[in-house]
Design brief:
single chain, 528 residues, alpha+beta, five-stranded mixed sheet, 11 helices, 18 strands, 21% strand
């Protein structure tokens, strides 16, 4: 019986250490959340550590995460961070039973990592950003020191009531419960404070009145959207529009305090603009399709919306900027967002007459926070990572030789025109359509060049012309469809497009890195 009792005591002791470690970690995060809510929510440890992980992740791994998890990649990262922290906390708790100072010191090491990550972020506002991590880990270390500190050495006797070195089981569970409740209250208070700090941004968006465009978008042609079930809508709703960025926490910017600076090489008249000043300018409205460079062949990271914004070329010209073809000193426009992201666009393309803009609205409403409120940049014909800066706050004119933006430092190309692409929306891969007429349909895009032809092939047969829907503009995708007399058995369906320059979509497969995927999209179906 003595052996059974010793085993039970050892098991309880280990479980108590693990629970003490978890509570210490939970307390550290909760107190950090509270301090971040009081100071700056973006400086919370999970946010800054997650951002540091993203910054240091190889481009191929990021691309894999986007392909595998899609828009849930940030949620997966945060869950992964919390799981690692939980395992680390359990280990420290068990260690602290015998070496409580070492356990508490381990918690402090985590705090130093969080503080270093906070100070390394491109949007860091100084030493104050380290405070949430440091305060949280001091609280966590104190909790671990308290809960594990009264443990007796391994093998020491325990009383009939489970007392070990001054802790009874009931006493420990009471202390643990009080700690959990207090930490939960601190964390909830921190979240409430963070939410309150964002209310001004929400209110500024709710109160924003959009002016009528001086240059309205032409009506979408009646035949732009074929009535084929299973195909993408011509206009992608704000809710369904893809989101690919590195922001673990979506910035909530108060439109009343937002400013945009224009400066740099060749800017003879540097200026700063408020949102009201931008809205007072003549605005243009355009339908423009955006595509992410991480979009695989046939992938979902492409969408079409109606944007309202300030013509970017005119604003740059007002600041004295000239394109390189006219003697301008800068060939790269570096856009910076409020979270420190940098994107580099070629000045020549921004000012060559295309509808590049600083967008303030999307599909008839102010930009959603996920998509860049209050202002984002859009340049038709370029992949988003070199043109579509969300939450933009700074434009610097420079050269490609002088500066590498965020993604270029991570092996992506400096210049990234959208490649001609096409996608089969219906039938879906591995569908089982019935014998007879089957409608194959989808979309094709080659922004700023347009689509002039789409062809479909069944197995190794000849390419056949698909019917093209009406074209809205060269900057939007174009729907297509083809009626196929399907015979029984398995079949591979493929599609290719020809753009407005006469270039045919290449068959050659290329990965998304460094400048976008290429190849024909195909699906396999079984006709029954």
């Amino acid at each position: 019986m003595r052996g059974v009792s010793s085993f039970r005591n050892t098991t309880f002791r280990t479980a108590r250490g693990a629970l003490a470690g978890l509570l210490a970690g939970f307390t550290a995060l909760a107190v950090a959340e509270l301090v971040a809510g009081l100071s700056r929510p973006a400086a919370g440890p999970v946010t800054v550590v997650g951002g540091a992980v993203i910054d240091r992740t190889p481009a191929a791994v990021k691309d894999f995460a986007i392909r595998t998890f899609g828009e849930n990649d940030k949620w997966v990262l945060q869950v992964g961070i919390l799981l690692v922290l939980a395992l680390f906390a359990v280990l420290l708790g068990v260690v602290a039973l015998r070496y409580r100072r070492a356990g508490a010191a381990g918690v402090l090491v985590f705090g130093m990592v969080g503080a270093a990550a906070a100070l390394s972020r491109p949007d860091s506002e100084g030493a104050g950003d380290a405070l949430p991590s440091l305060a949280g880990t001091l609280a966590g270390a104190a909790v671990l020191f308290f809960l594990a500190g009264r443990a007796s050495p391994a093998g020491s006797p325990s009383g009939d009531d489970g007392t070990q070195g001054g802790w009874s089981r009931r006493g420990f569970l009471t202390a643990a419960t009080v700690t959990a409740v207090a930490a939960t209250a601190a964390g909830a208070s921190g979240r409430a404070l963070s939410g309150r700090r964002g209310r001004g941004a929400v209110a500024s968006r709710d109160q924003l009145v959009l002016p009528a465009p001086a240059s309205p978008a032409p009506p979408v042609p009646a035949g732009a959207q074929p009535k084929v079930p299973g195909t993408s809508s011509f206009t992608t709703s704000n809710r369904d529009f893809y989101r690919v960025d590195t922001a673990l926490v979506v910035p909530r910017v108060d439109a009343g305090t937002w400013r945009l600076r224009v400066r740099g090489k060749g800017v003879t008249r540097p200026r700063s603009y408020t949102l009201d000043q931008l809205l007072a300018r003549p605005l243009m409205e355009r339908d423009i399709t955006l595509a992410c460079v991480s979009n695989e062949v046939g992938g979902p990271y492409v969408g079409n919306a109606r944007w309202l914004g300030v013509p970017l070329a005119g604003l740059l010209a007002e600041c004295g900027v000239e394109p390189p073809s006219k003697g301008g000193r800068a060939d790269q426009l570096v856009a910076r967002s409020v979270d420190g992201m940098t994107l580099g666009s070629p000045v020549e393309e921004v000012m060559d007459g295309r509808d590049a803009m600083l967008a303030v609205a999307m599909n008839g409403e102010p930009l959603p926070f996920d998509h860049g409120f209050p202002v984002r940049m859009i340049v038709p014909g370029l992949y988003g990572y070199v043109s579509a800066c969300k939450w933009i706050t700074d434009i610097e004119l420079t050269t490609f030789d002088a500066y590498d933006p965020y993604w270029v430092k991570r092996s992506w190309a400096r210049r990234a025109p959208v490649k001609t692409q096409s996608r089969i929306d219906t039938p879906k891969p591995f569908a089982r359509p019935a014998v007879g007429t089957v409608v194959i349909a989808g979309v094709a895009w080659a922004q700023h060049r347009g689509i002039t032809r789409v062809e479909v092939r069944v197995d190794d047969g000849p390419w056949q012309d698909a019917d093209l829907a009406a074209q809205d503009s060269v900057d939007t995708w174009r729907h297509w469809s083809h009626r196929w007399q399907a015979a029984p058995g398995g079949h591979t369906l493929a599609v290719r497009a020809t753009d407005g320059t006469g270039a045919v979509q290449t068959e050659q497969r290329a990965r998304t890195i460094p400048d976008g995927a290429s190849g024909w999209h195909s699906v396999f179906v079984t006709v029954t």
